[in-house]
């Protein structure tokens, strides 16, 4: 039995490009990976999915039947461009089950490949169900309001500890639009998103009159960008988005399978105030949570834990001159995942003083230091194949016995974390 990798495209804000992204993404994914089944379904009643993909007669059943528990594989029809689709419904009624039901249902569905769910511009049963079912959530943002709205979606995922599945996609971007002489709108969006600890793609989907024209007019068909707007910037951007999704899908398979030999992600403590506390030291794998030590935090997964002082010395010893300096207050490790910089990851270590000033940066040659791979897996909870842009922060001062830092130290660390992330961004290092 297979289960689909579910991608939800969601935003409470209307008209941000959800449907355009969801439908075109399906076409690009299929074009890039011909042998991978791609299926799309929509909880909206606009029939855009049907207008792009339907071939011939309307299928007998539609998404309403899925909500009644009909087998997904029976509702899926083969559509245009090799994309499978579930027909939309004019009226959907929320089932009596809680929204988490959909995830269980889809995960037990005998459907292979990728399933894209387009959602309504409202946080109703259907959107919540799609979020909870998703392995990856794409949230198009075109302005500050859409960014602010994303908080409600993140909250739903944070409650089930899946906030790391959300990625913001700057959409409908006019690359020339400016907030001021110095700041372009999309640069502001990127900055504001990272300030709020969101993962945001480092490319965007441009606003294009030609793309807008594909979905307007009197035709009952909506044409994809791939076939009818290839000469626009959006063509390359959607391809990039599809490549990003495929990288997450491939990484998901690695994570769902067995880890490479010797790589263990560590044990996370039972849910509490800090549910992502890792009990073991990432370097030696012996218990460290209740002994204290050098606190570390991974921004994306929000995993946290402690490195034994002796192990920390080993880590510092691997770094060149910066690490030896007694005034180093914090070490930031940035990882550029495969795909961003080539077939392999790039790891850099940056050192900071207590005011958040950058001392120096150096690259850590992962091939010459294989043990770093395991340390990073322990700290981030993911294999490096699944890395994209990661930031791990490590305090260079040891904290007294854990497992928690204490309220003051916690606030201080959060403050430093923001300073350091900003400094790295300004220096073009993250
Ligand atoms: N890249 C783009 N360039 C120009 N116009 C676009 C682009 N993407 C979407 N549009 C247009 O913007 C409008 C809203 O797009 P879309 O329907 O995809 O948004 P949505 O978030 O699904 O909306 P809703 O919340 O109503 O479901 C449509 O008219 C669409 O054609
Ligand atoms: Mg829509």
Largest beta-sheet details: 7 strands, mixed
Distance between the termini: 40 Å
Q: How many separate domains? A: 2
Shape: globular
CA-based gyration radius: 23 Å
Helix-strand sequence: EHEHHHEEHEHEHEHHHHEEHHEEEHEH
Assign the CATH class of the largest domain: Alpha Beta
Q: Count of DSSP E strands?
A: 13
Relative helix content: 25-40%
**Poorly predicted residue ranges:** 254-262
Kindly report the average pLDDT value: 88
**CATH topology term of the largest domain:** Rossmann fold
Strand order of the largest sheet: 3-4-2-5-1-6-7
Kindly name the structural category. alpha/beta
Q: Give the CATH architecture of the largest domain.
A: 3-Layer(aba) Sandwich
CATH homologous superfamily annotation of the largest domain: P-loop containing nucleotide triphosphate hydrolases
Q: What keywords describe this structure?
A:
seven-stranded mixed β-sheet; 2 domains; binds adenosine-5'-triphosphate; 430 residues; binds magnesium ion; alpha/beta; six-stranded antiparallel β-sheet; Rossmann fold; globular; 16% strand
Question: How would you describe this protein?
Answer:
The chain is α/β, with parallel strands linked by helices and 430 residues long. The chain has 2 domains: 5-256, P-loop containing nucleotide triphosphate hydrolases (Rossmann fold, 3-Layer(aba) Sandwich), CATH 3.40.50; 294-426, no CATH class. The protein is 35% helix and 16% strand. The protein is built from 15 helices and 13 strands. The strands form 2 sheets. Strands 3-4-2-5-1-6-7 form a 7-stranded mixed beta sheet, sandwiched between helices. A 6-stranded antiparallel beta sheet has the order 9-8-13-10-11-12. Helix 1 crosses helix 11 and helix 5 packs across helix 6. The longest helix has 24 residues, at 233-256. Residues 254-262 have low confidence and may be disordered. The structure holds adenosine-5'-triphosphate (ATP) and magnesium ion (MG).
């Amino acid at each position: 039995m297979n289960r689909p990798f579910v991608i939800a495209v969601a935003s409470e804000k209307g008209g941000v490009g959800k449907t355009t992204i969801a439908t075109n993404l399906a076409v690009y994914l299929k074009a890039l990976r011909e042998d991978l089944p791609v299926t799309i379904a929509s909880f909206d009643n606009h029939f855009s999915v049907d207008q792009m993909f339907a071939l011939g007669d309307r299928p007998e059943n539609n998404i309403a039947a899925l909500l009644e528990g009909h087998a997904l594989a029976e509702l899926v029809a083969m559509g245009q461009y090799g994309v499978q689709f579930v027909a939309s419904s004019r009226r959907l009624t929320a089932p009596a089950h809680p929204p988490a039901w959909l995830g269980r249902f889809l995960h037990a569905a005998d459907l292979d490949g990728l399933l894209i769910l387009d959602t309504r511009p409202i946080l109703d049963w259907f959107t919540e169900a799609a979020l909870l079912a998703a392995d990856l959530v794409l949230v198009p943002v075109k302005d500050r309001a859409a960014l602010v709205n994303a908080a409600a979606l993140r909250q739903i995922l944070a409650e089930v500890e899946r906030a790391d599945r959300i990625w913001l996609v700057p959409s409908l971007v006019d690359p020339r639009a400016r907030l001021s002489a110095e700041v372009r709108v999309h640069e502001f969006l990127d900055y504001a998103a990272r300030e709020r600890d969101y993962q945001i793609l480092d490319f965007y989907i441009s606003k294009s009159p030609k793309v807008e024209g594909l979905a307007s007019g009197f035709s009952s068909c909506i044409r994809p960008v791939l076939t009818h707007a290839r000469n626009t910037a959006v063509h390359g951007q959607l391809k990039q988005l599809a490549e990003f999704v495929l990288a997450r899908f491939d990484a998901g398979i690695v994570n769902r399978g067995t880890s490479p030999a010797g790589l263990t992600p560590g044990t996370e403590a039972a849910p509490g105030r800090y549910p992502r506390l890792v009990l073991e030291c990432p370097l030696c794998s012996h218990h460290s949570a209740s002994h204290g030590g050098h606190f570390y935090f991974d921004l994306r997964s929000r995993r946290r834990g402690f490195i034994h002082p002796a192990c920390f010395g080993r880590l510092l010893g691997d770094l060149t001159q910066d690490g030896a300096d007694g005034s180093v207050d914090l070490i930031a490790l940035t990882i550029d995942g495969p795909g961003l910089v080539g077939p392999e990851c790039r790891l850099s270590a940056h050192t900071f003083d207590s005011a958040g000033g950058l001392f120096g940066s150096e690259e850590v040659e992962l091939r010459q230091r294989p043990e770093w791979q395991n340390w990073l897996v322990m700290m981030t909870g993911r294999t490096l194949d699944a890395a994209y842009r990661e930031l791990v922060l490590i305090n260079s001062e040891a904290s007294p016995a854990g497992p928690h830092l204490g309220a003051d130290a916690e606030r201080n660390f959060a403050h430093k974390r923001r300073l350091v992330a900003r400094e790295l961004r300004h220096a073009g290092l993250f």
